[in-house]
Specification:
Strand content: 15-25%
Oligomer: single chain
Number of strands: 8
Radius of gyration: 25 Å
Largest sheet: 4 strands, antiparallel
Structural class: alpha+beta
Distance between the termini: 77 Å
Strand order of the largest sheet: 1-2-3-4
């Protein structure tokens, strides 16, 4: 007797579809992670470029390239990224004073330049600098998913972290600087 194959069975087709779905899910999950990493890297590169240009400007003119105060730094305060050295006021960086600068973020600077805003807090996609420490922050922040939680990054360095640790039954505060 001759056996005639009519094609693949429903079970083998179901198994193939499940395998394809699993592989697709893994690829999408990996792609999402890489998008988060790319966004954070772009912000960190922007801040590094700004830091270099501001440093050159400061060494040439003896001042930082600013004129307008950025008053609403509550998101930076709430995120605890403002360090002990970040005393004083925060200012919008005057990008046109910095030559040869290309940024990934900071598009609200065009609104700032055209005076197309009511309050400085209306400008979120912008870089600000602390007058004392010269630390640079991205006011809008970058969302990054880490260990199933969303973390916000506003600068390229981590703030001081205070941790309480029990040593010999006694609580001692440890200060970590990153």
């Amino acid at each position: 007797m001759i056996k005639i194959d009519n094609g693949i069975t429903l079970i083998s087709l179901s198994i193939a579809v499940i395998i394809v779905l699993i592989i697709t899910g893994m690829i999408l999950y990996s792609a999402t992670d890489s998008i988060y990493i790319e966004n954070l890297t772009n912000m960190q590169n922007d801040i590094a470029n700004l830091r270099d240009k501001v440093s050159l400007y400061y060494s040439e003119y003896g001042d930082i390239p600013v004129k307008t105060e950025y008053e609403d730094v509550s998101n930076l305060e709430n995120a605890k990224v403002i360090g002990a050295n970040d005393t004083g006021k925060f200012y919008i960086i005057e990008l046109e004073k910095l030559e040869g600068l290309t940024l990934n973020y900071g598009k609200d600077y065009e609104k700032y330049k055209a005076n197309n805003y009511k309050y400085s807090s209306d400008l979120t996609d912008i870089y600000v600098i602390n007058e004392e420490s010269h630390n640079i922050f991205y006011a809008k922040g970058i969302r990054v998913k880490e260990n199933n939680t969303i973390q916000m990054y506003y600068t390229d360095s981590k703030p001081d972290v205070e941790e309480v640790k029990l040593i010999g039954g006694k609580a001692e505060k440890l200060l970590f600087l990153f």
